[in-house]
Amino acid sequence: MAKLKVAFYWAASCGGCEIAQLEIGEKILKVAEVADIVFWPVAIDAKYKDVEAMADGSIDVCLFNGAIRNSEQEHLAHMLRKKSKVMIAYGSCAYEGGVPGLANMFDRASIFERVYHETPSTNNKHKVFPEPSHKVHEGVLCIPEFNDTVKTLRQTVDVDYIIPGCPPEEKTTWLALTALIEGKLPPKGTVITDNVKAVCDDCPRKRDVKKVKKVYRTYEIITDPEICLLEQGLLCAGVATRGGCGAPCPQANMPCTGCYGPVEGAIDQGAHFISAMASVIDSKDPDEIQKIIDDIHDPVGTVYRYSLPDSLLRRARIQ
Prior knowledge:
Layout: E1 4-10, H1 16-20, H2 28-34, E2 35-39, H3 48-52, E3 59-65, E4 68-70, H4 71-83, E5 84-90, H5 92-96, H6 108-118, E6 133-136, E7 139-142, E8 146-151, E9 161-163, H7 170-181, H8 248-251, H9 269-279, H10 286-294, H11 299-303
Parallel strand pairs: 1-2, 1-3, 3-5, 5-9
Antiparallel strand pairs: 4-8, 6-7
């Protein structure tokens, strides 16, 4: 029986997904029995031209992690989609845009201004900014073009499956790999996890429908280990987030930040989270409600930490 041909690619992400792919431990030997890695730039010497020379559809599956931030990543997404029978968005950044997607609060010009001119450590008196091509004595140097907007993988190419998480838990990765190895893949479009319900379904904390009059940051409060964090004033996104991770963050007294994406049926994870937050505010006084809201530091980074590019908002409007 011919081995499966597998490709991996790392676009706009931190690199945690590359490590997560190896966290299956000794099970990787099972993968090695049935699959050959034909493209994995971070680990093996494979050139883009090698992929371009492959027949269309010759790669059985590509695990693509990271958002689409520049022209090179967009090119690779299209090329790997063309060469792969199955395209999997692996991790939060490929799935929803992830933390890199928060850059959509700005545009390319303002990002360049900040990074290459305004930061205290930058010495760039001539305000030289990156440009896609530049002529030098030896020829023309080219770098990828920095896109104005961060996109998800699904906004760029057709995606067959999604493995969520920042990064995905080992059991989630293995669930998908097992389905691939056994030829038992679910219907196209499936978000592959152990639980289609919310993180709250995995969390042992009790929900007593308590109301809050103040929102806290994690260092400002010692929480009751038995009670729902959201009902204690910590902005835990578990109620708006797909389960399957096992709820490790709430069990460690840390609020869920939403990395497994929206619960089944939710169009906009951030809007769902805002609704849940509103349901625990204990006040009808507009001024008091506004004071509670004002205590939320970085509202966009809180409710759309992983999902801004995939939300109904997509990005900020820059005048």
